Amino acid sequence: MSELQQAQIVVQLGSSLTGKRVLQWQATCEPEEYWVVDNLPGRLDPAHHRGRRLVCPVEQWLDLHPAESRQPWATTIPELSRQAWQAAADRSEAFGEAQLAHRIHPLPSGTGAAVCR
């Protein structure tokens, strides 16, 4: 069982999550409590978890609920995050056609310029 699947409570800050993997996790997670904190009214959890909907600005909620010092429980997540960041950085720094295409600005149309391959 992954560390995220062991979460007892999920506090979602903001109206919606983005990203394929995060949405897949959200659809399958089964915490005891699922809270959504956002100042927009209405239902925002597509997985329809049983929990609380707290309508207030996220900043205000964070000010009223400061973090408490606790023993870390998801110890592998920071390392996985670091590895993902490093892998992305390694792939973007190497020289190759994809990296060049990503960095070059499109040529204006009608200039007669050609790109040789």
Automatic annotation (TrEMBL):
GO molecular function, one term: 2-succinyl-5-enolpyruvyl-6-hydroxy-3-cyclohexene-1-carboxylic-acid synthase activity
Gene Ontology BP term (one): menaquinone biosynthetic process
Highest taxon in the source lineage: Bacteria
Keywords: Menaquinone biosynthesis, Transferase
EC code: 2.2.1.9
Domain Menaquinone biosynthesis protein MenD middle: 2-107
InterPro entries found in the cross-reference section: MenD_middle
Protein name: 2-succinyl-5-enolpyruvyl-6-hydroxy-3-cyclohexene-1-carboxylate synthase
Source species of the chain: Raoultella planticola (Klebsiella planticola)
Lineage: Bacteria, Pseudomonadati, Pseudomonadota, Gammaproteobacteria, Enterobacterales
